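Chapter review: from sequence to fold.
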Amino acid sequence: MFKKFSHLEDVTGQNQAKSSVVRGIRSKVIEQYPSIEQYIDDILPKKEPVTVIKCRDHIELVSVQTDLLFFKQRDGPYIPTLRLLHKYPFMLPWLQVDRGAIKFILSGANIMCPGLTSQGAKMETDLPEDTIVAIMAEGKEHSLCIGLTKMTTENIRLVNKGIAVESIHYLCDGLWDMKEAKR
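The token string follows.
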């Protein structure tokens, strides 16, 4: 999604969100990620202005001060950025790929089934299709990608062929390089 994303070319506008919009964002985020409810005041403080940045392809970014926190496309779910996920790694369920998949993921490739079923990979949780997941790498501390499962984890094990997780946001993509919201 953010492979060729550029702040200068893809951002079409930004504005400070009204308090009612911020309340809506907070409630949707808590509904989607109940594990962060106790941290929501740290993530989206009530007294800080929240900026909504509109981008091409109907993508919206949510930022507080200069920190990019969430993004969504059209009416889809709010998805945390990798920087936020590194602070709160328990937000998303995770899958672990083997070392051989790392260089492909960092170039924007989708995660294939063999990368999740080989030695060094882990799928400890049974997840349904269309689940937002963090992708961890064998031997690494932080996640390197956020993706959307294209099949259940049970089918990934059984079929062991094709795309298992669609890559949405990964280290060093356009959103990661944006680092902060420009004012």
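Two observations follow directly from the output. The chain has two domains: 11-81, 94-170. Strands lie at 11-16, 50-55, 59-64, 67-73, 79-80, 94-97, 111-112, 132-137, 145-149, 163-170.
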